[in-house]
Amino acid sequence: MKTYRIDGSRIGSAADFYTEVGRAVNGDGGYFGSNLDALADCLRGGFGTPEEGGFRFVLAPYQGPRAAIGEPVWSTLLRVFVDNGVDLWLKN
């Protein structure tokens, strides 16, 4: 299974989260968008992720990004992963 690693130490805002997802999927300077709709598109496959599925994301560390993003937006981000059937592993 393909695993994309998101560097949580680089996340201080929701915009940073999207930037780091883009970097994890498409390399330095990678870009797929900067909102929840773009994230959902990425998680459905394409835009750098396999269209046939079989991938996951690991966010480490996750506690700083969670605090920086704020609970309402954080909960919504998690829901987007769940709704699209993509695992997001949260590690310290």
Automatic annotation (TrEMBL):
InterPro entries per record: Barstar, Barstar-like_sf
Pfam families (UniProt xref): Barstar
Domain of life: Bacteria
Signal peptide: none
Residue ranges constituting the Barstar (barnase inhibitor) domain according to the UniProt record: 1-82
Family of this protein: Belongs to the barstar family.
Protein name: Barstar (barnase inhibitor) domain-containing protein
Organism, as annotated: Mycolicibacterium fluoranthenivorans
